[in-house]
Automatic annotation (TrEMBL):
UniProt source species: Magnetospirillum aberrantis SpK
A GO MF term: hydrolase activity, acting on ester bonds
The name this protein goes by in its record: SGNH hydrolase-type esterase domain-containing protein
Origin superkingdom: Bacteria
PANTHER family: THIOESTERASE 1/PROTEASE 1/LYSOPHOSPHOLIPASE L1
Domain SGNH hydrolase-type esterase: 84-330
Length: 344
């Protein structure tokens, strides 16, 4: 018995020693590389299943490259348009070729404007996090000098929480360990499964055909309490524009909308949602932040693309309250290509 225990102990010791050596040689525990210090998902390839979210959804590869951008890999020096936003920019549950960036890139090419578009969307990130990205992420991507930085913003700023995605820091020691561990990084499928599972907490299919609608807000007095938040949002927009100019890029701001409200014969109708705000409340909030963006754009003379007012979405364009189906993303990409064709 003692002999067996000794053999087991020796083998465990050898495995542990090998693991330590592997971590020291291949891990990033002592790296001075700035990107290694951020809570970015990088060098990831996993399988995502969208079959339960929208018609035609299936399994596809979701990737983040060595710089943290979505996709199989992009040469930063070739990027013309850098797109920045939250989950509606990342579009986790859409294949690469169905994202609005891919549609926009294809349609611009068809119009004679061959451009490379990079997707820097991070689920849940607001303009607070975008400011961090502009100062702590993008400056450390070799050769990245986009001509345009497109900010697809507003929805997440309605509910800014200052979480880990906005600080670009790890939200727990476990995530910090995963980021630096060579052995963990070798199991990227495990990491990807975790990312996908966590995302499904906020990506759930909504049945628009059976939805109940109301024209009465739960919190009609919200605007009277939101002045400070909206002023802070305006300040962040000004800073994003300044940082874009500092990298010799033109900032392009795009207003956003949601799928849980609509205007019928001049009346706002919102979906009745369990436990809290309804679509009318979200309409009031999103409209206020979009108005703030339009105001600052007019004040500063920026390029502001008012998608919220100009694009009409229909049933089938969203699979939940916020996120577009491929059909909806195609509308966004087509509209953006039309707007940007004269600029690029």
């Amino acid at each position: 018995m003692r002999k067996i225990l000794t053999v087991i102990a020796v083998n465990l010791g050898l495995l542990l020693s090998a693991a330590v050596v592997a971590e020291l040689v291949f891990g990033t525990w002592f790296s001075s590389e700035p990107l290694d210090q951020l809570g970015l998902v990088r060098n990831l390839k996993t399988t995502i299943s969208a079959g339960s979210l929208y018609e035609g959804g299936g399994d596809f590869a979701y990737q983040r490259d060595q710089w943290g951008f979505r996709g199989p890999g992009v040469d930063p020096a070739q990027v013309i348009i850098l797109t920045v936003g939250g989950s509606t920019t990342n579009q986790l549950y859409l294949p690469d070729d169905a994202t609005w960036q891919a549609v926009m890139e294809r349609e611009l090419a068809e119009r004679g404007h061959a451009v490379v578009v990079a997707n820097a969307g991070i689920d849940g990130q607001s303009t607070i996090g975008h400011l961090r990205a502009m100062t702590e992420w993008f400056p450390h991507v070799p050769g990245l000098k986009p001509r345009f930085v497109l900010f697809y913003v507003g929805l997440n700023d309605v509910h800014t929480g200052g979480g880990s995605v906005d600080t670009l820091r790890h939200s727990s020691r476990i995530k910090w360990f995963r980021q630096h561990s060579a052995l963990w990084q070798a199991g990227t499928k495990v990491v990807g499964m975790f990312v996908a599972r966590r995302a499904r907490l906020t990506h759930q299919r909504v049945d628009y055909d059976t939805a109940q609608w109301t024209d009465i807000a739960v919190e009609p007095d919200w605007p009277s309490k939101a002045a400070a938040d909206i002023d802070s949002y305006k300040d962040r927009l000004r800073e994003l524009a300044r940082l874009s100019h500092d990298m010799d890029a033109v900032p392009v701001f795009v207003t956003q909308t949601r799928g849980d409200f609509k205007v019928v014969d001049g009346k706002v109708l919102g979906m009745v949602e369990e436990g809290g705000l309804n679509g009318v409340d979200h309409y009031i909030r999103v409209s206020a932040f979009n108005a703030a963006l339009r105001e600052v754009c007019a004040e500063q003379g920026w390029v502001c693309l008012d998608m919220a007012r100009e694009v009409t979405f229909e049933v089938g364009d969203f699979y939940d309250y916020l996120h577009n189906t491929p059909k909806g993303a195609a509308k966004v990409g087509h509209w953006l290509a039309t707007k940007l064709a004269g600029l690029v």
